[in-house]
Design goal:
Blueprint (H helix, E strand, L loop, with lengths): L3 H54 L10 H4 L6 E7 L9 H18 L3 E7 L4 H7 L4 E5 L9 H16 L5 E11 L2 E10 L22 H75 L1
Parallel strand pairs: 1-2, 1-4, 2-3
Antiparallel strand pairs: 4-5
Helix pairs in contact: 1-6, 5-6
Length: 292
């Protein structure tokens, strides 16, 4: 049984931990509001760009002469999994859920006879993927010195992916990130980003105006495809930031509550041990007095 000194030390230690988790919860809550607003503000732009892509895509037939980002390489034997993680922990299962989804996809693709490679964003997913696929990491993108990944980072990632694609290093790229729903719910999401899935034309609406494009639809689409890729990556980074803060806030709230429960339990043990010690001391005093 722990001594009174040990119990008191544990209580003080847990109280210190509780102060830290409470502070981190408040910081995550403050950051979540900003990150959520940024993610939600970016969604309409991505949606509108997708609609423009659909409109243009419906006017052309994808052939071997179409832009490579749309037509593909003609093969799907090598798949690149782009795994977007954060550089910080204390966010519950946020990072591990993204990695888990990527590993499930990797095993599925391997079972289909495909070659799997990885492009890693952020530090947290690296150890697990290195342990499972030590020779399959094609490239890593470091975000250690970036406080809030934004469009500049999305642009650099997109440029690197396109360069690797044009070098013939892979045929298909899948992006893995966490879709933000609310502070309690973040959904690991898989999305094919290269080649850009052929957009489907939206059904024509009565009264739609006839639009003439200059230059033609294919040239505009070729110019929009890289922008579309960067926008998808940018949106994923924003979704990840909001998801990370939501997961961190929830994890720190749970940790604070658990610390409070543990403090109560230890306090009860301390009081009981103290009472037992006092009782034992009284018994010894009475026994000593009777002996006299």
């Amino acid at each position: 049984m722990a001594s009174l000194k040990e119990l008191k030390g544990r209580i003080n230690s847990v109280k210190s931990t509780q102060k830290i988790t409470k502070a981190k919860q408040m910081v995550a809550a403050a950051k979540l509001r900003k990150a959520q607003a940024a993610a939600e503000a970016a969604r309409p732009y991505a949606q509108r760009l997708a609609e423009v892509m659909s409109s243009l895509g419906g006017k052309i037939t994808v052939t071997a002469n179409s832009p490579k980002l749309l037509a593909g390489t003609g093969s799907d034997s090598v798949h690149l999994l782009v795994v977007a993680n954060s550089d910080k922990g204390l966010a519950g299962a946020f990072n591990s859920n993204i990695v888990k989804a990527a590993l499930v996809a990797a095993r599925r693709l391997e079972a289909e006879g495909k070659t799997v490679l990885f492009y890693l964003i952020g530090r947290k997913g690296r150890p697990v993927i290195r342990r499972n696929y030590p020779k399959s990491i094609l490239q890593m993108f470091d975000t250690t010195d970036v406080r809030n990944p934004g469009f500049d980072e999305a642009e650099r990632i997109a440029d690197e992916l396109v360069a690797l694609y044009e070098e013939g290093r892979f045929d298909v790229a899948h992006l893995f990130f966490s879709k933000f729903r609310n502070a309690l719910t973040q959904e690991p999401t898989e999305q094919q980003i290269i080649p850009v899935p052929a957009p489907k034309a939206a059904p024509a609406k009565q009264g739609d105006a006839v639009v003439e494009y200059e230059p033609d639809e294919e040239e505009i689409l070729a110019a929009l495809l890289p922008r579309y890729l960067k926008t998808q990556l940018f949106g994923a980074l924003l979704e990840n930031m909001a998801s990370e803060q939501g997961a961190s806030m929830t994890a720190m709230d749970n940790a604070t509550r658990n610390a409070g429960d543990l403090i109560k339990t230890l306090t009860i043990q301390y009081n009981r041990s103290r009472q037992a010690a006092i009782t034992t001391e009284l018994v010894e005093i009475i026994a000593g007095a009777e002996a006299l």
